[in-house]
Amino acid sequence: MKKTKPRIVNIGERRKPTPNGVPGYLRVDTVHQGDMDRQKGGYHINILDEVTQFEIAGSVEKITESFLVPLLLKLINKFPFRVFEFHADNGSEYINRVVANMLNRLLIKLTKSRSRQTNDNAQVESKNGSVIRKWMGYGFIDQKHACLINKFYFDIFNEYLNFHRPCAFATEIEDGKGKIKKVYKQENYMTP
């Protein structure tokens, strides 16, 4: 009796991105919008630049090549700088020949997460909760609404996310005992 041998997929390099302070190293992840009565919900695609935190979101009905590749092209073209690297987890929606060929045509290197290194894509995973889930929620949203969600993302949300969302900057205050406390003062809130 022989065991089934795992299939080795030689698409993408298995390593953590090292941008060295240069923008253009993107992280990508998919957020599923729930199921209801055996019906699948839509999917949100979240792409984040590791250095500048510039973030673009989009939505697709299904994570098949016919839906995903045109949206990926549109999302990548929205970044205001040259893209060097595209890092995904090991999901088959990104680690396949169609996406790899598209990235090769754009001269973008594809990397994927290392095995047993759960923090390789942690940055975009945390943005899924703090950005996508905060605005879109956890409830079921039907696939047919992907076009309306994309209209919201591309007309309003992506611009707000990158240019108008307030960011808090901490001020460190030392008390009488020498303990340092971080305080977020109203005058330290700014937009990017």
TrEMBL record:
It comes from Candidatus Roizmanbacteria bacterium CG_4_10_14_0_8_um_filter_39_9. SUPFAM superfamilies: Ribonuclease H-like. One of its GO terms (biological process) is DNA integration. InterPro entries: Integrase_cat-core, RNaseH-like_sf, RNaseH_sf. GO terms for molecular function: nucleic acid binding. This is Integrase. Residues 15-131 form the Integrase catalytic domain.
